[in-house]
Design brief:
With 437 residues, the chain is α+β, with helices and mostly antiparallel strands. The protein has 6 helices and 32 strands. It is 18% helix and 41% strand. The structure holds zinc ion. Zinc ion (ZN) binds at residues 299, 319, 321, 323, 400.
Length: 437
């Protein structure tokens, strides 16, 4: 009886040891295969990184099978002695595979005695698209006459789907948007680019990251911008700078002015750039833009302004809109149909409204005393959107009117001109209608 108890006890311990060994010591986990998780293999990132690791045992075998249609290749990786880790860089192009879909199978085996000494097996499959050639760009528009500070539009088609496309002018980028089967880009020759050796590029990048760049044939006319002198009076500083006091605490009115004119102006421009991307992929404007009726032009686009205080020059800036003055608190109308993308306080522009007219074309109305629309509203050409005023950085009651292309200010005068619209905008849009392959 006693003997039997001892045997059962020992057997019990043996089973516990075996179970413990199986669960705690024996490696039952297969190696971990890490494959780059992306879809496209492009010319700039043509190597697929493969990494295999086993946490408990050494590696016994790692293999890769690559196939494309009937073509197949198997690679057995050389594992260093007593290694539990291997990295491999696979270059499908070098192995003779061509652009198109490639299928990958990676398997790995460890030296665990699990599975009756065969080891643990891991296997993963992944499909990639090998694409090493850039998209081809075909221009659809041929007439591009622009001036420095002016606007233009061009259209193109591409040989394959693109992730990003547009027009590059010096440091500026204007995104292209789908227009039926083609791509459309409203762009500008910004007022501050150097016209010497300036090339306007049309660029396109496919999903594999292959980039193509072609020069856009365009004629660029130089613009002579005006110089103007602005005297900053103590009265202006004392009455106007209170608007910005909460942002610049503890500074004198003159110090606030200098901060507002430099830092806040720059911040507002960056914000315009962001708002410029919030655009409808539809042409919402109809015909030429409306100018505020019966208003005199007080300042033009591109005016180089020098600011003087008690006869001393304190700052210089460029005016990037047109200032129009009528009677105080005059009706301000939407220059064209579109959607309100901003309505509220906007730094140097005071109370402002921005209307999106589609494809990155937007209009800005600054220094308002009253806003009658809200963000998201659809407004008709000529609809009253507010009243003029002198909020923000404005000496007297006037409307600061601006046109922006993807957030970059351009000369509004062109957009008011029906002939310019016909020859430069509608002509090119028509070119794209006619040829929609
Ligand atoms: Zn202005």
């Amino acid at each position: 009886m006693n003997k039997f108890k001892v045997v059962v006890f020992l057997l019990g311990i043996l089973i516990m040891l075996a179970v413990g060994y199986y669960y705690l010591i024996l490696d039952r986990v297969p190696p971990k295969i890490m494959l780059e998780n992306r879809k496209y293999i492009g010319a700039n990132n043509k190597i697929i990184k493969i990494s295999v690791k086993d946490n408990k045992s050494l590696l016994k075998q790692v293999g890769i099978k690559i196939s494309q249609g009937q073509r197949e290749k198997t690679i057995s990786l050389k594992i260093e002695k007593n290694s539990s880790h291997i990295d491999y860089e696979l270059d499908p192009k070098k192995l003779g595979f061509s652009d198109g879909e490639i299928k990958l199978i990676v398997w790995a085996l460890d030296k665990s005695i699990n599975n009756f000494f065969q080891g643990n097996v891991a296997k993963i499959r992944k499909t990639y698209i090998l694409d090493t050639s850039p998209p081809n760009i075909f221009m659809k528009t041929y007439r591009h006459y622009l001036k420095i500070g002016g606007s233009g539009v061009c259209g193109f088609s591409v040989s394959e789907p693109i992730k990003r496309g547009g027009v590059e002018v010096s440091k500026y980028f204007f995104p292209a948007y789908r227009y039926k089967k083609n791509y459309l880009v409203f762009f500008a020759i910004p007022y501050d680019v150097d016209p010497k050796n300036l090339t306007v590029w049309v660029v396109a990048e496919d999903f594999a990251g292959n980039k193509k760049k072609i020069p856009l044939r365009c004629y660029i006319k130089r613009t002579r911008f005006r110089h103007s002198k602005i005297n900053i009076s103590d009265r202006f500083l004392n009455t106007k700078m209170v608007q910005f006091e909460d942002k610049f605490k503890g500074l004198s009115p003159l110090e606030i002015f200098l901060k507002v004119n430099k830092e806040l102006r720059k911040k507002n421009r960056d914000m315009l750039r962001k708002i410029g991307l919030n655009t409808e992929k539809k042409i919402l404007f109809k015909g030429a833009f409306l100018r505020m009726p019966n208003a005199a032009r007080m300042a033009s686009f591109g005016d180089k302004r020098s600011y003087f205080y008690h006869g001393k020059k304190i700052d210089t800036e460029t005016h990037l809109g047109v200032d129009l003055a009528s009677v105080a608190r005059d009706k301000v109308i939407a220059a064209n149909s579109g959607r309100v993308v901003y309505a509220g306080w906007f730094g140097i522009y005071g109370n402002a409204v921005i209307i999106d007219h589609g494809y990155g074309v937007q209009s800005l109305y600054g220094h308002l005393s009253l806003i009658r629309v809200k963000k998201g509203d659809f407004v008709q050409k000529g609809q009253v959107i507010g009243l003029s005023g002198a909020t923000g950085l404005a000496g007297g009651d006037h409307l600061h009117f601006g046109i922006l292309i993807s957030g970059i200010p351009v000369d509004p005068v062109e957009w008011w001109d029906p002939r310019w619209m016909k020859n430069n905008i509608y002509y090119n849009l028509k070119q794209m209608e006619g040829d929609n392959l």
